[in-house]
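Hey, can you fold this one?
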Amino acid sequence: MMYVLFGYFAVVSILSGVFTIALKNPVHCGLGLLSLLLHVAGLFVLLNAEFLFAVQIIVYAGAILVLYLFVLMLLNLKTEEQHLHKKYPFFLFAGVAILGELLIVTLQTPYGGAKGTASAEVVLQTGPSHAVGIMMFSDYLLLFEIVGVFLLGAIIGAIVLAKTPTPPTPKTDAAT
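Sure. Predicted structure:
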């Protein structure tokens, strides 16, 4: 059953990612991104990473996606139609080439990942969320606070950019 769920989440995540970049309507792209983020959260559940599942749902599928859609509504993209459908074969070829290169590099790497010192029983007994919380708010507290300050600066910058009026573009007179 685990393999079936993993296959479902993996295939739908890939398709949602493709729809996110291939659809023309920005709101439909946002819905594709929402589907992608929810299915990646499902992959976290399969990995017994409940904390990452919760962060994925709350932060990414909630806050980041709302921010993305808010920016889309501010931009008013209906005035600028982009026709990229003629370049799709190039993008498809480039994507397949990059994916192939990543597979080759991943399969030939000498690094298999570092093994943790705790056994699976110890992690399941205390819970991975508890372990991540203890590490985040003890050893990495300063870094956690610095990231919060950076995010606050990014929010203030986005508000300033959204409120800044754009100067009018000079119109050239075609008759002269």
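DSSP finds seven helices and no strands in the chain. Let me know if you want another pass with a different chain boundary.
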